[in-house]
Amino acid sequence: MQHKEDYINIGLMLFSCGLAFVLPFELFLFSYAVLGPLHYLTEISWLHQRNYFSTGKKDYTILIVLCLLISLGVVFHDVFIMRNKFVGVFSAETLADIMKVYSKWFPLCILSALVGSIGLVLFKKVIPKIIMFVVGIGIGYLFRDTSFTKLLVGIFVPTLIHVYVFTALFMLYGAIKTKSIPGVVSVVVLILCALSFYFIQYVPEGFNVSEYVKNSILKTGFSSVNVTVIKIFKSGVITQFDVFESRKGLMIQRFIAFAYTYHYCLLYTSDAADE
Predict the structure, then answer these.
(1) What range does the domain containing 70 cover?
(2) CB under 8 Å to 235, separation ≥6 — which residues?
(3) How many CA atoms lie within 13 A of 83 on its CB side?
(4) Which of 105, 122, 134, 208 keeps 20 to 30 A from 218, CA to CA?
(5) Global pTM?
């Protein structure tokens, strides 16, 4: 059964990779809007059955609190700023200042949740768990004005690191634990699929992204991830052309579409999860 799931996952990888080459933006939107919610609805039940891999049954509650704090920024931005709610109560300048302060500090919540969750897995007593969360807050505070928190923690951890790096580590853990050769092969295929977008950078003749798709990507705010990655390969001002039509932009979007689509389709194996 384990090998069968490995082969299915390899097939899903190749299928996702092929679609990402052809429809990079459309595939991402479909995965983000349709597959994502379905994935998390099933994943929550799957995680709950395993006590979220923590040593205490109620450990997940503190992560829920941190998740709500992180989500406040998205709600605030979309409702109060993008949709102009509370106009007349708060000035645009005040709303912008609040968002600026929140954007500076919310990576601290992400880092605290990330470091603290390690404590939930490793320790059984409450005090060491609390210490791990405090350590996460301390690290976030010390590096609050650096690219470490702004880019790595604030942008990449909840997005690409989550859906690609953590997925690869999860698969590798399962393959090592079950001593599955096809499982190891699936990890190699995952890496090769990602590399293929770098080595095969082509723009089909007449390629054009519709205004609807562009606006949808921009409204999700996810284009900030594209822009951040493009800056690694290109200096200067980044325009919409760089994001939606350039070779580098397509390369990055294909990887993003692949990573999200496969992550949402990944078959969780009970053998890899059960300890």
Answers:
(1) 2-273
(2) none
(3) 9
(4) 105
(5) 0.81
